[in-house]
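Honest question from a wet-lab person: if I give you the sequences of every part of a complex, can you actually get the arrangement of the whole thing, not just the pieces? Trying it with mine:
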Amino acid sequence: EAGVAQSPRYKIIEKRQSVAFWCNPISGHATLYWYQQILGQGPKLLIQFQNNGVVDDSQLPKDRFSAERLKGVDSTLKIQPAKLEDSAVYLCASSLALKSSYNEQFFGPGTRLTVL
Amino acid sequence: ELKVEQNPLFLSMQEGKNYTIYCNYSTTSDRLYWYRQDPGKSLESLFVLLSNGAVKQEGRLMASLDTKARLSTLHITAAVHDLSATYFCAVGNFGNEKLTFGTGTRLTIIP
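Yes, you can. This is the full assembly:
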């Protein structure tokens, strides 16, 4: 079974530039998550999708971050404009569905973003 | 707001020794996860604990959950170098699955 795919793996940009990350979840997984992991910290949830609908985006900085999952499969996360404090690893995860008894999340390899 | 605390944050131990990592959380939750992260890698799921008193074991790692005390432990038995990694606990709830992660415990096993 193929895992969660993410690209690019690394990205270096200057502040005020824009950047986009892509995620392809495990086939059949209805729920998709984007996390931000700052160096030395645990991952923090940014946004959670169920199929193509947003379940929780309460911690997404909406003035600069946006995410979509138009067809309920792939997802993109965009930052525009980037700030220095956005330097982090952006992790995508997927799980079968909400409200299942064993809703384990599987994580992709992450995209390491450096903002200069 | 749910807070998840782990201790210790850093742990250096010799091979062959036993030790325990603790995970405390501040509000009622009905599932707890343990993940492992190697440097520069993503998170690997180790255990999912779903009920009070749940205990799961895999090799030299054993996880337990006490929902009344809001405490989970990850016990390492006879540590080997391959277990060196950062270990995270994360707390979620049925039907929501918004995971709140702890700060992580960086474990280093010294030969």
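Two things worth pointing out. DSSP finds no helices and eleven strands in chain B. Chain B touches chain A at residues 4, 33, 35, 41-45, 48, 50, 88, 90, 92, 94-104 (CB under 8 Å).
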